[in-house]
Amino acid sequence: MTDSEKLDLLLTEIQSIKGELQDMKSEMQDMKSEMQGMKSEMQDMKSEMQNMKEKIDKLSMGQLEIKKESYMLNRKISDTYNVALDVLGTSAENRTWLEKGALIELNCKKRKTENYE
């Protein structure tokens, strides 16, 4: 093999390696582009997760507010029930008092009429 043939073979080999390097560079560019896309998707997912966390926090606060209002409503119902019971008891006492008063008055009238006869 002559020097010229050796150089041609070496040049062919170098060009083959250069072609392979170009292919590798192209593949790496594709991989880099895919990684950038994945990074962008991860950022979007992170943002969505942050929004979901905020919504969950708001729901939690809303739940506490509903619990508080429910407790207050239960107290109001209980207070109203107690007032109604007091009113019922008072009206029963008043009725009894009025009935006794009416009986006493009736008895007094009877006595007066008996005394006049």
How far the N terminus sits from the C terminus, by CA atoms, comes to: 168 Å
Find the structural class using helix and strand composition: mainly alpha
- Listing every helix as H and every strand as E from the N terminus to the C terminus, the arrangement reads H
Number of strand segments: 0
Q: Helix content range of the residues, please?
A: over 70%
Topology:
Blueprint: H1 3-116
Verbal overview:
This protein is mainly α and 117 residues long. It has a domain at 58-117. 97% of the residues lie in helices and 0% in strands. The protein has one helix and no strands. It has one helix spanning 3-116. The radius of gyration is 50 Å and the shape is rod-shaped.
Keywords:
117 residues, mainly alpha
Summarize this entry quickly.
By secondary structure, the chain is mainly α.
